[in-house]
Structures are given as structure tokens and as C-alpha cells.
Amino acid sequence: MIKLLKLEYTKFKNHSLILILLMLYAIFSTITIFLGKEIKDLPDFLPSTAFLYKFPSTWDYLGFLGSMMSYFFLGLIAVFIVVNEITYKTFRQSIISGLTRKEFFLSKVYAITAISLAATIWYFLSGMLIGLTHTTGLRMSDIFDGGWVLPRFFIMVMGYMSLGLLIGFLIRKPGISLLFYLIWGFALEPGIKWLLTYKVINHGVVRLLPVNAMEDLMPLPFYRFADFIPDQGLEFEFLLPYWQAGLASVFWIAVFLLLGYRHFSTKDL
Amino acid sequence: MAVLEINNLSKSYGKNKALDSLSMTIEAGNVYGILGPNGSGKTTTLALILDILKADSGSYSWFGDKMGDHFRLKIGSILETPNFYPYMNAPQNLEIVAQIKNVDNVDYDALLETVNLAHRKRSPFRTYSLGMKQRLAIAATLIGDPDVLIFDEPTNGLDPQGIAEVRSILKRISGQGNTVIMASHILDEVEKICSHVAIIKKGKLLATGPIGSILNNDITIEIATSDISQLKSVLSTKSFVKNMTELPDWIECIVDEQIDVTEFSKEMYNSGVVPTRLVARKRRLEEEFLEITNNA
Asked: Which stretches in chain B have pLDDT values below 50?
């Protein structure tokens, strides 16, 4: 495992686009939350924007921000580290140099696991910093409210990146893979969910679609207020309970990785 | 000891049968040339035995299956074009190969010296000419001192100088006790470097064995004299002349291996022929190759 991780690091430590995406993620997933300080007209039920930065609610807001930013920046990295190797044909070079197909695939899985872990640590550190500097009269028990934020965050990022990996392995063409990945999360899956809900089955099971389940691990906290639920006429709770979102996400991660591996291990390269 | 055994390997692309039940054995220490016209299945064969392509049927086994799925760690190969990370320089790209092969402390300077790339080692791969890319690929095959080297059309697409450089490198590194498998459609290349050949066409193996056994021992003699028609009639009476072809300036004939040049000259003098030109040479691989592939 160490060998494969080191190999991935050697491959991409000089790749400027990936470094830029990582940096942009690190910046935007934290500082964007301070845009909240610029909001002047708050809805009646919100006394101030302090809740954005206070324990424990800051975890929810920072987590939702991380969800959007990681789908975009980190998911794209997952697509990139696969399609790059296909475009440069270096995946063939890796295989003929001696990696087995399984090792090559695992090196990508380890890479996205490491990045997801790093993003979770970044989330923890920035959350602690923001919370500690904005919470008055802090008690230790207030820091986390028992919502398992760190594992939820990790599974969410891992889920997005697994989807990116699968799309990279299946589509192989850089432009189309990147576009399809973005369209899937931002338009296609929401569209499918909408169609299913209003035309086929108005039931909570539609929430188990992959990106929806992963998003529900770190949902927009405002959805907890009835006024913010976007669609009326639903015959189910808008958000999945965390445990269901978590199980569904782990299921999808397994499906994505197994499909990707099966495809890569049996195909002509 | 057999390094590689191939049993009835077949591969189709759609309706096109690229490889049709190919079997061959490659022994340790041989320098093996796989010869065939373009599109005959050479690259397909190499890609199959390196697990880049999946065979439709048949099997192969490296090193008596002792290495399992890790057999490529002991093989250095070039398959089609050189593929490296365009944004990395030579040592960085070689470092990736060294990591894959579990080799530490590679002397990259010496390695790049071997393939005449030392002067450009700090430039990113994307700035290299095709010849330089190919030489970097050759350097990559040498990492970890592998038991087997595989070269697929190593001089394809290079300019004359590039071809000369790559050939001299290949000559230097083959025949050092390692096994070499080289696919080529350039006969001259194979003839100069290889000890064994396999000739394939349309995915079928036509002939295989030591180069000496493919090349029979008949000699080709080019002969000219002032009176060509007399020469022709004399030659046609000699039983040791197997075949003759009239060329613009001389007659080329294939002569039985029992007769050497001295005897041939004597026969000519005794029949009243005084040659103005007499050249004897071994049959060239090109001639055998054309004969074998045309008869197939």
C-alpha cells in the first residue's frame, strides 16, 4: 500500500493542475464561510450570523461548504488522475513496467482515500479554529453535538471521488468524463430524482440515489427549517437520516469501485 | 530453460483475426526476432504476453509461472510508442519505473549516458524528439537489469541518425546473456542483432528457429562476362545451379551448398567463361523472408 501511495505521489506532485485544484479546495472550503459576515438582511428567524461560526453548528455549515467544494474540486481530481494516465497512455507503461492491473487500480483507490482523509483533517482543523475563536463560554461537550461529523464528512468526500474514479475508468476521454461527472451531480441525478418523485414513485426511496445520499451526509443546514424545503407535495421527509445516508453512500462506494475494477481488469488496454 | 511458452494464442478485433492460434517457445539467452509485414500480429502478440490485451483463447506462461502475476517485474519492455508523463523530466520518469520495479539507487546519470540523453536530462519529456523519447523508453527497459528485454519496432518512425543510434544501443545491450524479443518488419535490423527468428503473417506462425536454420546454406553468386548469352547457356547445363535470374548487368544464381566459390570459378573457366564480375554471398534474410511470406 505504501509503495502504491508513494507512486501516486511521485506521479502527481509536479502536476500543476492537480496542485491548483487542491489549493483552491483548501481555500474555498474554509474562507467562503466568512462571506456570511457580509449578509445584511437576515430572515426574521435568524437573529445573527454567529451560528455559522459557533460550536457545534459551525460543523454543519462548514460541512455543507465542504460538500459543494469537494464535489467540484476533489471529484475533478479523481477524474483527472485516471483520465490523465489514459491520455498519456502511461497506464500501459505502468502495466508493462510491472504493476498488475489490480495494483494499478488500487493505487487510484488509495490516492482518493488519502485525499479524502486529508480533506477530513482539513475540515477538522479549520472547524476547530473557527469554532474556538467564535464560541464564547465554551464547554468541551459543546464542541461536537454527537453527530459523527468527521466520519460523515469522510464518507461523503470518498463517495464523490469514487464516482469520479468510475467515470474516468469508464469514459476515458478527458473532456467528456469531466463534463459527465459535473452534469451527473448538478443536473442529471437531480433530474432523475425529480422525475422519479413526481412521475413514478413519490417515496423516500428516491433519496437513495448516489449523489443525493452523499449530499445528505452534510446537507444545507437551512433544510432543517420547513421554510427552506424546496419542493412541496413530497410524501416523505426531504432529508435522509444520517445513518441511512451513510449506509447508502458506503454501498454506492463499493458498487462504484467494484464496477471500475471489473471493467479495468478485463478490458484491452 | 524456456523463458516464455505461448500456446495457441488467438485474438480477434471484431471480424479481423489478428492472431490465429500462435504457439512458440523462447529459450533463455536467445535474441529472438519476430518478423512480419505491417499488420501481421507482432504488436498484438507482444501486447498479449504483457497483459495489455486479453486473449480470446490460448495461454502463455512466463518463467514457468514462478512469478505469478508479477512476471513483468523481470521484463523490460517497449510496446508501440514510448509513453511517459509529459510534464516530468527524464530522471523523474525513470524514477516511476524504478518504484514500480522495486529498484532502489538507480544511477540515472549512467543510464541516460548509455542512451545518449544525459545532455537533456533536465528537460520535460514533452520537449523530446521522437528519437529521444524512444531512447528514454530504452533506458526505462534497462532499470533493474531485467532477465528479458522486449522491443516492439524499436526504430519505427525515426530518422536515419536516430535509427543508427538506437541500433547501436540495441547491439550493445543484447547478447549480454539476457533474453531479447524484438518485433520488427525491418529485416536488416533482425539479421544484424538476432540469433533466432519467428516469421509471422496474418496472425499465423510460418517459420521459427535459429537464424541459420531459416537461412539455408545455399550461396548466391552474381556473375557477369562479356558474352551474357554464352554464360546463360553454360550455367543452364550445370546441375549445381538451382536457380538463375538475369539482371541488367549480371546474372544472379543460387548455387548448391556443396559447391564453394573456388570450385564454381574453376567450372566456369573450364567451360570457357571468363567472368568480369564474380560476387558470392550468403542468402540474405530478406530473400528468405520474401520467399516464406509469399508462399504462405
From this structure: none
pLDDT digits 0-9 by tens, A136-162: 777 777 777 767 899 999 999 999 999
Task: Give the list of residues 6+ apart from residue B92 with CB closer than 8 angstroms, or none.
Answer: A10, A14, B85
Which one of B172, B195, B214 terminates a domain? B214
Clarify whether residues B127 and B12 are in a common domain. yes
Residue A72 is given by DSSP the state I
Of B23, B102, B52, which Cα lies nearest the Cα of A92?
Answer: B52
For residues B159 and B232, state if they share a domain: no
Last residue of a domain, one of B183, B199, B214: B214
Whether B192 contacts B163, CB under 8 Å: no
Q: Tell if the CB–CB gap between A7 and B96 is shorter than 8 Å.
A: yes
Stretch A9-24: mean pLDDT, rounded?
A: 93
Domain holding B153, by residue range, is: 2-214
Q: For residues A107 and A101, what is the distance between their CA atoms, to the nearest angstrom?
A: 10
Contact A98 B72 (CB under 8 A): yes
* pLDDT value of position A224: 66
Q: How many CB atoms lie within 10 A of CB B241?
A: 19
Residue B167's alpha-carbon distances to A149, B28, B129, B188, in angstroms, are 62, 22, 17, 11
Give tens-digit pLDDT for B43-78.
Answer: 999 999 999 999 999 999 999 988 888 999 999 999
* Closest C-alpha among A15, A11, A127, A109 to residue A60: A127
Cα of A245 to nearest chain B Cα, Å: 38
Q: To the nearest whole angstrom, how far is the Cα of B148 from the nearest Cα of chain A?
A: 12
